[in-house]
Amino acid sequence: MSTLEKRLQEVYRFFENKDTVLGYRKLMDCALDTQNLEIYNQIIEVTDWKSKHPDNESEFITKCLKVLEDISKIPIEVYNNFKPIVTATNITKSYGSNSFSLGPINLSIKKGNVYGLVGENGNGKTTLLRVLAKELKHTSGNLNYDFDSKVNTDFELRSKLVYIPQRTQKWYGSLKDNLKFVLSNYGISPEENETRVLMMICRLGLWDYKHLKWSELSSGYKMRFELARTLLRQPELLLLDEPLANLDVLAQQVILEDLKSICNSLNHPIALILSSQQLYEVEKVSDKVIYLKNGKYTDNNNSETEETAEKNQLIIEIDCHCEREKLQQIFNPLQLEKLVFNGGIYVAYFDTNTQFYQVLEALGNHQIDVTYTRNITKSTRRFFVS
Ligand SMILES: Nc1ncnc2c1ncn2[C@@H]1O[C@H](COP(=O)(O)OP(=O)(O)OP(=O)(O)O)[C@@H](O)[C@H]1O
């Protein structure tokens, strides 16, 4: 079965299981992959219908399945150039005015992948994003870009390589008009402009907000607008600085899933690097996590380093109502190596042979009232708590 057929089948299953909200978002991703304006118009019609009939789920599903069937008849040009779009070799950046220094950093960034950029405050996340975005000149090392076509002007570069900073600028007029303005710079006909913009409005869940002004949108919807504006330009490399700031927990999950799905497009995959303090959420969708410590990072995928060797030690975070001594007693038979209490939660380090389920079993057997626990053995969270 081809990747496309698998995707269509996945969408079909979402509707079959009545996961209609997720199913519809995935259906729209398949629609975007067709690049077909008639399909876009069908999605726009269904979205409009849905906003007028929010409670008629069965008819909504019927309409969606009809679009899905039409999509399945359209040949999709599958993108298959997965060589790195950016390669950074030993890049560094110093500001001169202070002692902070970024790098050396070694990275290889590919389309269709999501890279989570994490690290404590002031460790250089924004600096790295701005260097990759060519907003800041790096001090030393090599930075090579390999876009699909030659970039001749700054305008072309800014279409392919988009950086969205933490604080975005205010705009004037309606959301929809601002999006249409983006495409008008690309010489697209008015009808096609309208269709493409409305399709993007549908995809980013902005249908009910399309006539609103900047001041009328919440921070989350402002971020969605910025994404819509960016995606209309069909970037190859997208750099987002803290896109989750100001979003509630549910909105964070939805936007991350949306971003992952959009970056995984069959027809137009995007390489996405996003910085965030929301470790677990970001790790969940990232193909790779870039952890900056004192401004340094080395892509150690294939090398057996201290970090990879350390992976096997079981590290667990626990929030529970239990005295330290008692917890120590419970964990000692499980080859506890270290128990750290940081005032809020315990972090327990066990021997490599200890399994997470054994820890859960021990806590259960002693009827410990656990509020929260997580195995952080493979999470970059282990660097933050150590
Ligand atoms: N324009 C600048 N001139 C001088 N120093 C700067 C400049 N921008 C950032 N720095 C310094 O570089 C260091 C890294 O900052 P950066 O904003 O890249 O970190 P960050 O990881 O994004 O931090 P945060 O999580 O707080 O956003 C800090 O010490 C900061 O003071």
Automatic annotation (TrEMBL):
Organism the protein comes from: Mesoflavibacter zeaxanthinifaciens subsp. sabulilitoris
InterPro entries in the record: AAA+_ATPase, ABC_transporter-like_ATP-bd, ABC_transporter_ATP-binding, P-loop_NTPase
Domain ABC transporter: 86-319
PANTHER family, per database record: ABC TRANSPORTER ATP-BINDING PROTEIN, ABC TRANSPORTER ATP-BINDING PROTEIN NATA
Pfam families, sorted: ABC_tran
Family named by the database record: Belongs to the ABC transporter superfamily.
Residues in coiled coil: none
Protein name: ABC transporter ATP-binding protein
Molecular function as annotated in GO: ATP binding; ATP hydrolysis activity
Keyword annotations of the record: ATP-binding, Nodulation, Nucleotide-binding, Transport
Source superkingdom: Bacteria
